[in-house]
Every structure is written in C-alpha cells, then in structure tokens.
Amino acid sequence: MKNLAYSFIALFLFAAFNTQAEDSKGTIATLNAKQVSKLDLSGKWIGKRKQYTADKRSYIEIFEYEFDLKQEGNIVSGTTTIINSNGEYADMKIQGVIVGDKLHFREYEVKGAVRPEGKVWCFKHGELRIGKNGDNLVLFGSTGSSMEVYNYPCSGGYTEIVKADNSNNASALIADFSGENLIADEKISFNVFPNPYIDNTTIYYTVDSDAKVNVEIFDLNGRLITNLFTGNQKAGGYNVQFNAKTAGYMSGMFIVKLTINGEVYSRQIVQMQ
Predict the structure, then answer these.
(1) What's the mean pLDDT in 201-220?
(2) Which whole-number Å values give the CA distances from 200 to 44, 216, 263, in the listed order?
(3) In what order do the strands lie in the sheet with 263-271?
(4) Which among 4, 31, 218, 246 is least buried, having the fewest CB atoms inside 10 angstroms?
C-alpha cells in the first residue's frame, strides 16, 4: 500500500513538473547559454505566480511574486516573496544554480509568513528559462511545488517575473543579441522518466551526429554528484540510469547536465525517499 501511495504521488508530481502552460512565452526571446553567461541575475525580480488547478488545465489563483537574488559565479541565493489577493504572504529562502541557459532553483525555508486560514504555503522549485522581452530580462516557466510540511505535492504553477533594474546588465543588453541565435526550443530530444522517482530514473537523449557527450549530475549548490557518461557517441538515441542513493543521498533535487559538442542542456529531477 505504501508503494502504491508513493507511485500515486510520483505520478502527480510528474504531471505538475512537466505541464507546459500556455502563457506569454511567445513574446519572449529565449536566451542561449552564451548570452546567459554575460548576465548578472542579482537584484529584484517582480511578476506573477499562477497556481494550476488540479487538472493543470487552467489557473485557480494568481499571486504577486518577487525574487531578490544574489549571483556569485553560477550560484544563486536570496529570498522570494509571494502575496495573495488578501495580502497574506510568505518570505522564503531560495537556492539555485545556473546551468546552460536555465536557472534551477528551490525554496527551502520560510523566513516569515501570514498563512491563509486552513492553508499552507508551498515551496516552489524547478527550472526557469531566461529571456528578453524588449529591454527587459525575464525569468519564466512551469515549476513544481510541495507543501512546507511533509513535502506533500501541491498543484504547481507558472512563474513569470521581470528584472526591476537592468543597470548591471547594460553592456550585455546593448550587445547585438539579435546577431546571435536566440533559441525558442531545444534542438534535441532530452527527457527524464520517471520524474519524480523513488528507486531509479532513466535519462533519455538523442545525438544528431557523431559527438562528444558528457552526462553529469549536480545538486542545487552546484556540486558535482556523479559523472554518468563521458565519451564519443554516434547519431542515435541513448539512455542512462541514475539513483541518488548510490551517491549517498536518500532523497533530494538534482540537475542532469547533458553536454553535446559543447552545447549544454539541463533538467531538474526529484528523488523521493
């Protein structure tokens, strides 16, 4: 019965983790890894957090959502603030790491909160794309969430926040980004399933032509957990298994970093205990 319950939770989380919301993404030019490497995400970001309904087809509530970030190298720390329409809020600590063109993050501690009656605030986590809308930098994407107590799954949601002050990115924004290739979609097939998982998960990816490939696992502090594969591969589909317990972790959030001929792709994965 316990395994059945875990399987149900895993499937629920997988749906929340992989739902793609129809939002204003179409107006955002997604930056590639080279462009992201020129940026400093430090500072305040302001926008919205839209909470999915249980079936993930629409939104049940829209919150004001803010990030106050500090970036050092590729490591990001800071706080988030989420506020509902009644003025109830939660301030949370955040940790994250930039891998390629994405910010992988998780909220992990409530600093202060006024909780809605009969409800709890959920910790958000996931991977946010980094984009440019006019002269504004944007963090956006669908992300999962879990309750602050017992780590039970919440319904997840969609985040879109805009950097309030881009003065520390002026030189990068003046650069002719239009002369480089902005990416809207990844050029390869790259998935992890199941995700979340309990015992083992499998990383699936394709290689379009003969390439040097590296598959690594990192934690959200940017530490390398293990290298699953390094070598040359011919065009085709490949898969490799991962279990965080073999690296001494009973549970947690991790990042799969896939590098193909220098191009970096990443996915966040969750191992449940």
Answers:
(1) 95
(2) 38, 16, 26
(3) 224-233, 211-219, 252-260, 263-271
(4) 4
CATH of the domain spanning 190-271 = 2.60.40.2550
Exposure string over 153-176, b if 16+ CB within 10 A, otherwise e: bbbbbbbbbbbeebeebeebbeee
Who contacts 195 (Cβ-Cβ below 8 Å, separation ≥6)? 14, 17, 18, 201, 267, 269, 270
Q: CB–CB of 204/191 below 8 Å?
A: yes
- The dihedral over CA atoms of 21, 218, 97, 66, expressed in degrees to the nearest 10, equals 50
Sign of CA dihedral 53, 55, 56, 58: negative
Residues 4/132, Cβ–Cβ less than 8 Å: no
* Res. 25 pLDDT band, cuts 50 70 90: low
The enclosing H or E element of 4 equals helix 2-18
Give the tens place of pLDDT for each residue, 171-192.
887 765 655 555 545 678 999 9
**Radius of gyration for the chain, computed over Cα atoms and rounded to the nearest angstrom:** 18
Domain limits, the chain: 2-179, 190-271
Looking at residues 209-237, what average pLDDT do you find? 95
**Global pTM value:** 0.84
